Structures are given as structure tokens and as C-alpha cells.
Amino acid sequence: MIDDSAQNPTEAPPGGGLFTDEPPRPAQPAAYRVLARKYRPSRFEDLIGQEPMVRTLSNAFDLGRIHQAYMLTGVRGVGKTTTARILARAFNYEVSARDGRPAIDKPTIHMNEVGVHCQAIMESRHVDVIEMDAASHTGIDDVREIIESARYKPVMARTKVYIIDEVHMLSKPAFNGLLKTLEEPPEHVKFLFATTEIEKVPLTVRSRCLRFDLRRVESEVLTRHLASICDKEKVDVDHEALSLIARASEGSVRDALSLLDQAIAHGAGAPIHAGDLRMMLGLADRSRIIDLFETLMKGDVAAALANLRDQYDSGADPGQVLVELAEFVHFVTRAKVAPDLVDPSATQAERQRGAVLAQELSMSVLSRAWQILLKGVQETRDSPRPLAAADMVLVRLAYAADLPSPEEVLKRLSQPVENPGASSPRGGAPPPSGSSGAARSAPRLAATQPYLAPPPPAAPESPPENTPRLVLKSFAELVALAGTQRDIQIKTALERDVRLVRFESGLLEFSLAPGGSPGLPAQLTRKLQDWTGQRWMVALSTASGAPSLLEQAAAKENQRRVGVQAHPLVRATLEQFPGAVIVAVRGGEAEPAAMSSENTPVEADDVGYVEDSQDDDF
Question: To the nearest whole number, what is the mean pLDDT of the chain?
């Protein structure tokens, strides 16, 4: 028998080097697994923040009411695919009898130990659990493969499970092709769908599935979960830093674990503090955000801009600063209207200072600040210079913070102002002169001396006796007066819309032409009193009234055109050029009867322009 190792000296023996006397090579370290995969839940008990879904599924499995299709929807990173794999494991759970314990060979969610198929299912390598990404398999051909393979029984497990991720990406023909199999699948087939955009899934598909909406994980629950993982990884992290990670992840467990992975790498084994995490994520210091908000509510623009610049120099993104400022406005508003619903993840400083601001600020101020910040965040993100855009948002907010509410404006309009600048909308003393009070002086001045004119009295008062009065004798003088006053709107309305019924000094009665404004009498009442110095009674009449000045002018122009058209010379011209029309008649007025006489010469100025409407060449 020939020794293969001797015939082939270049092949190293197992566990050794090139020659037998070389020391064995060290084993390669296992590849690093990210925290999101390392701590992925494998049982329903490991899922966090999804208690309603777990309870429903537990009761369904205990009662034997297991559906053939499930639709899992929710935002990113809340456990849709993980839940689908746990369900696939529950469908095929099987444990052999040992150590006096009975065997388990039925669907159940009580999976206290790893079963026969569990490890392969959780690692997505089981032959009877088929996972398909609908983002890359969108067509009817992919669904046809599922339909064909669904007819055959599973190879190893009890149930054949199809997990289709991002199912909303399937095409319309693919959805239609899946409907029949989805409604009446074979007994050994289950469908599990996961999607982030449930509204894109057809109703015909949704109606055939049990739908579960996976919720965002609350910050407090997510913080405890991160703390437990840090204990297992032996990582020293501040509780405030974990709260920042939970808040930045917006309820996504995967995002939170990815940020924790990044924070551990950033610390390089050293304890992770909140300040380091803010610098890494580009977040603003929460205490400085509160300082910035208080500065803005005081109207100190210079201090607010300096605060923003300092945070920008420290690595904070201007848009993120506005986002956190808006979040704090929301926090203060909730503390004002519902003190018992304050975010439990908030720090002690946030709660104390937020409660004080909630008592001092009115709801109108908070609502106005929220609207300005909500619009300013988008402006800052779209701007090529985010810092400058954020500066302008803060300036706008500081000046608007001290503006009075509509109720205060109406109250001030109804009361005479005795000492402008003596009080502010919130009842404080006037600000000192200087840069810090400049922003407050402008809005307070606008509040105490509003530019809005008071409403006109219901009945105009009689002017003083020494006021000169202008007497109008005819309607034509009234039209001429409107032109003298350069009120083109009133002059045009008088010529176009007024059909005169009665005109006397101090009295105007008319009916409106079609299209006239019903508010014209009220406007004329005020204008005539201002122009003439006496009270006028202007009223609408039900009588038809004389034609308006514009209608009279149009009738006269039409009469002149008919008279000119009857002239032999003009008539012959029109017959010579078929399709020609009279555009205008210029010159002195001519009597129609005189112009119709064949023996009367026609002056050149009395003949209108004749326009040929055809394209004939002469």
C-alpha cells in the first residue's frame, strides 16, 4: 500500500505545516457578527415591544386556529423578518424525547429548547422554508415557481413555509397569479409576507391574510434592551448615552443596535459617554438645546445665534439642531396640556426646565414656534448653506415669539393706548436698549401700536361745521371727481356698473349692471363723504335705471358705425372687398340722415378704417 503523503510531499498533514516537524498553524478567528444578527430573537419571548401580536399568536396556536397566510407590516427594523422566521420555526417545531421529557411534534410557540429544524430555519438554510426577496423577484415567473413547488410536500419538515420579504414590490400580474393559491393553499403550505408599505399591497391580497402591525419600540423599552446587551458584551456605557441611541433610532431595534456597534467601535474599549456619542452622531447637547429655546423665547437673537454657532463648531448639524429644538417644543407642549404623559426617557433637567417653560409660555406661542420650526427644518435641509438658513429660522422665531395673539390684538384695538412700550404681551417690563433687547423692542412696538386700522363705524359721523363741503350737481361731476381723486377703481365702476335711477346732492340711487359688485354702495358712501365733506345716502334700486356710461358710449359708437356703413362710398368699398369690416369711426359726429344722402360729400375724417379680414392679395 502506497502512502499518499509520501508521494505528495507538498501537501501538509492535517493540523501541521509543510513538513511533519513544523508546528500546527493557529486556528483562524471566527468572523465578527454584528450585534443586530448576534442578538436576533429566536423565540417570541425575545421580541420586545410587540406584546399584542405575541398574545394573539399565542392564543391562536393554543386553540389550534392557525391561519394559512400572515401579513407583517411596520417600519424598518422592528422585527418583521425575524417574526416570520420564528413563525416558521413554530410551524415545524419538533423535539425528540429524552431525559424523561416527552417528544413534541406539533405547532407551538412555546419553544424552550432548540428543535430539530430550529437552527437551520433561523439561519435561513432550511430546504422547506423558502425565503424570497420580492424586490429582486417581482415578476409572474417567480410566483409561478412558488405555485408549482407548493403542490409538493415538504422534504424534511412538517410544513412548507414561503417567506416573501418586501411583498409590496411584486407586480400586479404576480399578485393576481398568487391569489388562488393564497386563498386555498395545500394543507402543508403557509405564507408569511413582510412589507414596510402596506398600502401598496392590493386589497385582494390583504383580505386573505391575518395582518399584524408591528409597532415602533418605545424609547424606555429600547434603552433597557440596549443595557442588557451591553452587560453581555461587557461594555461600559452611560445610561444617557443609551437614551440618545434609543431616541436617534426612532423605535427601530436594528438601527439602535447598529448605532451601539458604531459607538463601541468609536470608544475602542473605553467607557462610552453621552458627549462622545453626540459628537459621533452629530447631535446637539440637550441642555444647550434647552438654553437655546429659552434664549429664543426671551427674544435675545445675538445669544441664540452664538449658541447655534458654538454647537455647529462642536460638530452638530444645523438641521438636526432645529429638529431637536422642535422636539423640545413638542415636549413642553405635552407637559403643558398633559403633564402625566411626559416622555419617561427624558432627563431630570428636561422635566424640570420643561415644566417651568410650560407654565410660563402660552399655547399660542408654542404653536407658533412649532410651525416656524417645522417649516424651517425643511428650508435648512434644502438650502446650500444650512447654517445661514438655520440662523434665519432662529431670527424669525425670536421675533415671532413675542408677538401678541389674535385675541390680544383685538383687545388692544378696542382699548386706547396710553403709554406705548410700557407693557409687553406677557406682562413684563420693557427690554433694555442694546443688542439683547433689539429683537424684543420691535415686536412689542408692533403689539402696542398695531398697524391695523380700526374698523369703520356703522354710521359715519357728521363732519365739523368748519369743514368745506363740495356740492355735486350731476352724475357726470361725480365721475369727473373720481378721476380727479385718481381713484381708477371707483371711476371704472361708476362708468361700467352704475345704471342711474336718481341723483341729487347727498343722494345717489342706481341699479347694478351685470357683473357689478354688491359692495359698491358701501364703497361710494365712504368715498363721497371723504371727497365732499358731507354725508351721502347711496342705495341700490330695483328699477332698471338708465344705461351706464359705458353702455351709452357703446350705443353711440354703434350708431355712428351704422351711419358710416350706409354711405354709398363706404358701401361700394365693402362690396369691392368682400369680408372687410369697419373697425372704428374717427372724427366729428355726423348725422345719419345727412350721411345717407347720395349728393352730400363725405369728409375724410368721417370715414372709418376698413379692414380686410381675408387674405386676398390686391
Answer: 79
Mark out the alpha helices in 150-252 (DSSP H runs). Answer: 172-183, 203-206, 219-233, 239-249
**pTM for the full predicted model:** 0.55
- Closest by CA to 366, choosing from 421, 449, 296, is 296
Query: Are 440 and 299 within 8 A, CB to CB?
Result: yes
Tens digit of pLDDT for each residue in 406-428? 666 667 776 665 554 444 444 44
CATH of residue 152: 3.40.50.300
Could you tell me if residue 10 is inside a domain?
A: no
CATH number of the domain enclosing 495: 3.30.300
Residues 361 and 332 sit within 8 Å (Cβ to Cβ)? yes
Query: For the purposes of burial, counting CB atoms within 10 Å of the CB of 231, is it exposed (0-12), middle (13-18) or buried (19 or more)?
Result: exposed
Which residues, in sequence order, are CB contacts of 505 under 8 Å at separation 6+?
471, 472, 473
For residue 347 the three cell numbers come to: 432627563
Average pLDDT for 500-516: 84
Grid coordinates representing 93?
417545531
- Tell me the C-alpha distance between 389 and 382, whole Å: 9
Are 360 and 336 within 8 A, CB to CB?
no
* 293, 286 Cβ separation under 8 angstroms: no
Work out the number of other CB atoms within 10 angstroms of the CB of residue 554. 12
If asked whether residues 506 and 366 sit together in one domain, one would say no
Percent of the chain with pLDDT over 70: 78
Are 277 and 388 in the same domain? yes
Report if residue 75 sits inside a domain: yes
Per-residue pLDDT reduced to its tens digit, 523-581 = 888 888 888 888 888 888 878 788 888 888 888 888 887 877 778 887 788 777 777 77
Determine contact, residues 83/53, Cβ cutoff 8 Å: yes
Question: Contact 531/575 with Cβ under 8 angstroms?
Answer: no
Phi–psi pair at 446, nearest 5 degrees: -65, -30
Question: In which domain, by residue range, is 532 found?
Answer: 475-546
Cβ contacts of 166 within 8 Å, gap of 6 or more: 133, 134, 135, 194, 195, 196
List, for residues 433-492, the tens digit of each pLDDT value: 344 444 433 333 333 333 344 444 444 444 444 545 777 888 888 888 888 888 888 888
Q: Of 345, 343, 319, nearest to 332 (Cα)?
A: 343
Is the same domain home to 108 and 209? yes
Any idea what the Cα angle at residue 478 is, between residues 491 and 506, rounded to 5°? Answer: 130
The DSSP 8-state label assigned to residue 150 in this structure reads T
Secondary structure of 256-308 as H, E, C letters: HHHHHHHHHHHHCCCCECHHHHHHHHCCCCHHHHHHHHHHHHHCCHHHHHHHH
In this structure, what are the phi and psi dihedrals at residue 286, rounded to the nearest 5 degrees?
-65, -40
